[in-house]
Amino acid sequence: MTWLGSVPAWCWWLIALVLVAGGQHYRVVVAQDETATARAELADYRLGVSERDRRAAAQARAEEQRRQAVADEEGENARQELELAQGRAAAAESAAGGLRGEIARLRAGHRATCDTIAAQQRQARTSAVVVLGGLLEESDRMAGSCAAALERSRIAGLACEAISDGVKGK
Question: Is the pTM of this model over 0.85?
Answer without folding.
Answer: no
